[in-house]
Structure formats: C-alpha cells, structure tokens
C-alpha cells in the first residue's frame, strides 16, 4: 500500500467525518441550550432540560440497529457504499430538524418529529466511523496504522469545533431571536455539508485488502462465531465515550442552566479543547505506533477519571480560568489519548471480512450507552452540588473501559493481512479450520 494512497484516504476520512459530525454535534449543543424551551416549554425548567437531553440520547439508541445493517452492507458490498449513504442520510435529517415547527405551533407533534429525525441521525452515525476507520486502516502502511486511522477522529473533533463555532454567534443573539429563528441556522447549513461530502467520498477507492478478501454471505454471523469476545470487549471499552457526552452536553447544560455561567464562555471551552485535540490526536496515535495501543489508551482512561473531578468542581464554583484550563487538559489532551488510539485498537481486533461489522456493532452499542449518560447523570446529579456524583459515575466508566482493554492482546506489530486471525485460530476448532 502506497503512502500517497493512505494520505488520500485519511484526508477523505477526515473531511467526511468533520462534515458528518458537524451535523451530529450541533444537535447536542441545541439540546443543551435551546430545545428545552422550544420543544418542551410546558414542563418545568429542570424537567424540560432532562427531556431535551433525552432526545440527544435517543440518537444513540438507533445506532446498534444501524450497526447491524450497515455493518453487513460494508463487509458484504464495500466500505464506500456505506460512507456515501451515511453522509446523505445525516445531511437530510439535520436540515429537516431546522425546518421543524415548535411546540407552540404544532404541540406534541413537534417533539415527536424531533425524535424521529434524531433516530435517523443515529442510524447514519452508526456506520460512519466504522466505515471510515476500516478504509483508513486497510489503506495504511503496516507500521503507521494508528496515525492514519486517527484522522477519522481528528475529523470528528473538527466537526465539533465547526458546530460550536457556528453556535457562538447564534448563542449571542437576543433570547427572542435565538428561540425563534437563530437556532435553525446551524441546521440549515447542513445542505452545504451534503454537497461537499458527497463530492469527496464518491472519489474514494475501495481498499485492496477488502477486494482480495473472500466476502462472507452473512458477515454478522461470521463475526459472532469467530470474534464474539472482541465484540464484547469493544462494547465495554466504547462506553468511554461517556466522557465526551458528559463534557459536551451535561457539563454545558450544568454550567449554563444550573450554575448560570455565560453560554458563550462555555462554548469557547469546547472550541479551544477541540483545537488542542486536533494536534494531540495524531501525535498520540504516532506514539502508539511506536510503543503499542494499550499503554496510550489506558493512560488516557486514567487521566480522564482523575481530571473529571476538578473540571466539574471548577464549574460549580464559577472559576472561569480553571474551567478553561481543566477543560482543555481533560478533553483536549487526556481524552485525545483515547480518541487517537481506538480506531486502530478496535479495528485491529477483527479480520478484514468482518472488520466493519465488528467495529460498528461493538462501538455503537457502547456509544448508545454513552449517549444516555447526560440524561442519567442529569437525573442522579441534579442541583449545584450534583457534580460530585457525576464525576464518580464518569470515573467508574473510565475504569470499566480500561479493564476491558487491559484484558485484550496487543496488535500494533501484527501485519494487516493477519489481523484478527489469532482470534479465529483460538476460537474455531482445528477440524473446522482444516
């Protein structure tokens, strides 16, 4: 595999993921700042916020189902078809959110339509990262797989920066303008996302590794027969995404709606943390290409478990300087040790014929759990002093994810063509292999 092809694929994955996750993240920002007033005004403020955050989590519920469907398509018919479909579906669903009537106009129909469109967003996201990661990994040179696959997650961070940056001027609007037309603008911008993304992804070539692999008729059945333990390991490890959802959704809502911190300031915390992450992710991925996936991932889990306590505490006392410093350290550096590694770490657990299915199903079940985290912690950690319970919850998730990866094997020196073979050889009877 030539380095030039690997770079082309990584760039396409970066741009596509940035555009795709711009759509996904603007929903989370709107759920934290606006939807409790626009779609759930009949409820008291606390209940309205909880319902708005619940609609954010609903998008994650569709992910496991979408992972089974899109995983089958990607391993049966190719990665490219999945990447084009997911981008188109995400763009259309997001644009439609910006066109929805409010509760004041349509009553209960408004939040119902909101939930339906969020489910479609979740279906799209279920195949996005697994498809982009699989393609990047299979195009990458043997000794640089983590580096090239990390561009998918760098793209995700860029999408989050773009989503937050779009919301900065919107959040600064007068309250009346924000709640009438202002919040719709970021969603309407997804029309640009669709056009640009489709042009880019239609030019991506299918990987040679996939072309020379014997395609299974039922990849999912093969996956659970030969790699069930790795699927379970990825499910547990992927719940570490709770750090991201708690940072981007719960902490924002807690700071603005409970503590009363400025919307614009809290949005800037996310922007700066993600700017740092853009540099940290590829650097930490390159480190894992030299010393292994597990040490970097485990260090990231430990750092996140520790830093969540001072970060939420700094919000509770309204110390803006500490909020910025700790937010950047937590999400920009510590969480990047996880984001930079998991695309290669998870992908290397599976052989080519089931890689997309394995990554999609494992991550999306774990991400579905993580997507519900803001709703769960909002319920258990209400009030100004509720942050400590949220921090305990987050640290426990970090420990669980670290345990799942600690029990797995190291794969960074194994050739791409042999990835996942060890799992098959140890789980399929010798007579069946013969």
From TrEMBL:
Keywords recorded for this protein, A-Z: Cell membrane, Membrane, Transmembrane, Transmembrane helix, Transport
Transmembrane spans: 21-40, 46-70, 82-103, 185-204, 231-253, 265-284, 296-313, 319-338, 359-380, 386-406
Subcellular location(s) per record: Cell membrane
Top-level taxon: Bacteria
One Pfam assignment: MFS_1
InterPro entries named among the record's database cross-references: MFS, MFS_dom, MFS_trans_sf, Sugar_transporter_CS
SUPFAM superfamilies, sorted: MFS general substrate transporter
Subcellular location, principal: membrane
Topological relation to the membrane, as annotated: Multi-pass membrane protein
Residue ranges annotated for the Major facilitator superfamily (MFS) profile domain, each copy included: 9-413
PANTHER family linked to this entry: SHIKIMATE TRANSPORTER
Designated name of the protein: MHS family MFS transporter
Organism: Lentzea indica
């Amino acid at each position: 595999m030539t380095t030039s092809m690997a770079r082309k694929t990584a760039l396409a994955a970066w741009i596509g993921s940035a555009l795709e996750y711009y759509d996904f993240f603007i929903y989370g920002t709107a759920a934290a700042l606006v939807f409790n007033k626009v779609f759930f005004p009949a409820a008291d403020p606390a209940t309205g916020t909880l319902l708005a955050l619940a609609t954010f989590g609903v998008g994650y519920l569709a992910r496991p189902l979408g992972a089974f469907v899109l995983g089958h398509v990607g391993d049966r018919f190719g990665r490219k078809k999945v990447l084009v479909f997911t981008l188109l579906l995400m763009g259309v669903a997001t644009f439609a959110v910006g066109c929805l009537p409010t509760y004041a106009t349509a009553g209960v129909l408004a939040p119902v339509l909101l939930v339906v469109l969020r489910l479609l967003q979740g279906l799209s996201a279920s195949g996005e990262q697994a498809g982009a990661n699989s393609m990047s990994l299979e195009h990458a040179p043997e000794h640089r797989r983590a580096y090239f696959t990390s561009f998918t997650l760098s793209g995700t961070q860029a999408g989050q920066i773009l989503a937050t940056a779009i919301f900065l001027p919107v959040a600064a609007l007068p309250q009346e303008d924000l709640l009438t037309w202002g919040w719709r603008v970021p969603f309407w911008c997804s029309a640009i996302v669709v056009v640009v993304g489709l042009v880019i992804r239609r030019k991506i070539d299918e990987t040679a590794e996939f072309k020379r692999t014997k395609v299974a008729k039922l990849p999912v059945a093969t996956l659970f027969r030969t790699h069930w333990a790795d699927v379970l390991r990825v499910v547990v490890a992927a719940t570490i995404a709770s750090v991201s959802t708690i940072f981007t959704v719960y902490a924002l809502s807690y700071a603005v709606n409970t503590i009363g911190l400025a919307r614009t300031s809290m949005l800037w915390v996310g922007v700066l943390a993600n700017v740092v992450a853009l540099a940290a992710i590829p650097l930490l991925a390159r480190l894992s290409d030299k010393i292994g996936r597990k040490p970097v991932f485990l260090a990231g889990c430990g750092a996140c478990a520790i830093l969540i306590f001072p970060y939420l505490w700094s919000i509770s006392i309204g110390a803006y300087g500490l909020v910025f410093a700790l937010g950047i350290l937590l999400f920009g550096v510590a969480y990047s040790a996880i984001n930079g590694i998991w695309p290669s770490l998870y992908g290397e657990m599976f052989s080519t014929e089931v890689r997309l299915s394995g990554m999609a199903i494992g991550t999306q079940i774990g991400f579905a759990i993580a997507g519900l985290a803001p709703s769960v912690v909002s319920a258990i950690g209400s009030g100004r002093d509720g942050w400590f319970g949220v921090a305990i919850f987050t640290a426990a998730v970090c420990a669980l994810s670290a345990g799942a990866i600690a029990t797995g094997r190291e794969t960074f020196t194994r050739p791409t063509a042999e990835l996942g073979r060890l799992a098959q050889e140890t789980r399929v009877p010798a007579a069946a292999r013969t």
